[in-house]
Design goal:
This protein is an alpha/beta fold. Helices cover 39% and strands 18% of the residues. It has 3 domains: 2-69, no CATH class; 78-88 and 351-462, Aspartate Aminotransferase, domain 1 (Alpha-Beta Complex), CATH 3.90.1150; 96-344, Type I PLP-dependent aspartate aminotransferase-like (Major domain) (Aspartate Aminotransferase, domain 2, 3-Layer(aba) Sandwich), CATH 3.40.640. Its cofactor is pyridoxal 5'-phosphate.
């Protein structure tokens, strides 16, 4: 064993392998030391042989290790899972127009807070307000960094120190343990829950009202459904009740949709415009879910309330930067032409792709991969399957799709669905797929056409 330790090169010799690279020296030293430490551990545990420590093989492994260790922390990932709005993979993919807008804003100075007409200081909050109002029918609008911030800011601005009435059936928790009761507590408001889990009536709201009631909060249960023996109060009735008591009706819509998608089988998701028209005073929703833009929380509604929210000192802590506003502005403008929105916004395009298109897409990927797969070890097929919307939207909706399935004929540790799933996480770029019935699946709904060749290269690197 001691002889194997002597075969390990020094740090200096290892560093010479990277003379032509641009890696920062300190980071390079850390990566090389980590690599050598890993090899020492393998020698100690009898997991490595002398032939693995020969210069050519060792330096090849070193370069691969350093390249992976010093690659960008945020990496491009191929989403082969079929989950369109994948929270863990960055949710919505931006449209090219949004990417171009981000690049323009990032590559130099921009008019983030400068009024070009007046030649003086302006406000970043006006950059997307007109577009939001035009597309939703709201009187005014405001954008913060996500929908949780939007809900917090609205409650803190309009209801601090008072009670807010919420139905028990709407006290939701979403991913990351974001809970409506906790957000209300942090915002300085007291929760007054009414009704039961499955049924809440108008009388429940009426009986709960007191001189300390500051608002009624309606929460769209976007990530679950109560079906069967259930009842809630329509927005227009709640609005009539709230306005008769001179308090606002606030609606947390969560995953906000600007287009009715029911024609594509995506039902039970109200549009922002429909919510505004129903009589609510303030609606909050996400920019990076069904809308298909960057992470943002959009607040839209009555001008008198938006003006009060804009005066909140916390707004500065929750505001968006120039990159987010640029991407959101470009995304919103695509919605002025619905046909263009479906064509250009990747999230909408993926959500509404037809079975025929997906089948043809799967066959193209299948044909591309078929020639490189060892036939004696794997079987490649195209099969019907189900995709998911993700992002807490349309929880009951199955999206019919097609997947290219890799079935492993040799049952060993190297050729198995589990092993390939793990290996794909280390390829460049990493691929996140799913395993079903001991098969590895590439769901083509969430794979861009230009990513097919990347998948092929990743498989070749594994083989």
């Amino acid at each position: 064993m001691s002889n194997l330790y002597r075969l390990l090169p020094s740090v200096d010799i290892c560093l010479r392998q990277f003379r032509d690279t641009m890696y920062p020296h300190a980071l390079l030293c850390d990566a090389v030391n980590a690599f050598l430490s890993e090899k020492r551990g393998q020698i100690k545990d009898n997991l490595i042989k002398a032939e693995d420590l020969k210069e050519e093989k060792l330096f090849s492994a070193l370069k691969e290790y350093v390249c992976y260790a010093l690659s960008p922390r945020v990496k491009k990932v191929i989403n082969a899972s079929g989950v369109v709005i994948h929270t863990n993979l960055g949710r919505s993919v931006l449209a090219k127009e949004a990417l171009d807008a981000v690049n323009l804003a990032a590559s130099g100075y921009c008019n983030l807070e400068f009024d070009l007409e007046k030649g003086e200081r302006g406000s970043r909050h006006t950059l997307v307000e007109k577009d939001i109002c035009k597309l939703t029918g709201a009187e005014a609008a405001l954008v913060v960094n996500n929908n949780a911030s939007a809900v917090y800011l609205v409650l803190n601005s309009l209801c601090f120190g008072g009670e807010v009435i919420v139905s028990r059936g709407e006290l939701v928790e979403i991913g990351g343990s974001f809970r409506i009761p906790e957000v209300m507590k942090q915002s300085g408001t007291a929760l007054h829950e009414v009704g039961t889990t499955n049924k809440t009536h108008l009388k429940d709201y009426q009986d709960a009202f007191s001189e300390n009631t500051k608002a009624v909060l309606k929460v769209h249960t976007s990530n679950y459904r109560i079906i069967g023996f259930q009842a809630d109060v329509p927005n227009h009735e709640l609005a009539e009740f709230a306005h008769s008591r001179n308090i606002p009706l606030i609606h947390d819509l969560g995953s906000g949709s600007l287009i009715d998608l029911s024609a594509f089988g995506l039902r039970n998701e109200p549009t922002v415009k429909g919510i505004v028209a129903s009589g609510i005073d303030i609606v909050t929703f996400s920019g990076d879910k069904v809308l298909g833009g960057p992470q943002a929380g959009i607040i839209a509604g009555k001008k008198e309330y938006i003006d009060r929210i804009k005066k909140n000192q916390m707004l500065r802590a929750l505001r968006c930067d120039k990159l987010t506003l640029s991407a959101l502005s470009a995304t919103l403008r695509l919605y002025y032409d619905e046909k263009l929105a479906f064509e250009k916004i990747p999230t909408l395009n993926a959500l509404t792709a037809s079975k025929d298109i997906l089948k043809k897409k799967a066959k193209r990927l299948h044909n591309m991969l078929k020639g490189i797969m060892p036939k004696e070890k794997v079987k490649l097929t195209v099969e019907e399957n189900i995709s998911r919307v993700g992002g807490g939207a349309f929880p009951e909706t199955d999206l019919p799709t097609y997947a290219v399935c890799v079935e492993f004929l040799e049952k060993n540790s190297a050729f198995s669905a589990k092993a390939w799933k793990e290996r794909f996480l280390k390829t460049d770029p990493p691929i996140v797929g799913r395993v079903e019935r001991d098969k590895f699946l590439f769901d083509v709904r969430t794979i861009a056409n230009e990513e097919f060749i990347l998948i092929r290269n990743c498989i070749l690197s594994i083989l």
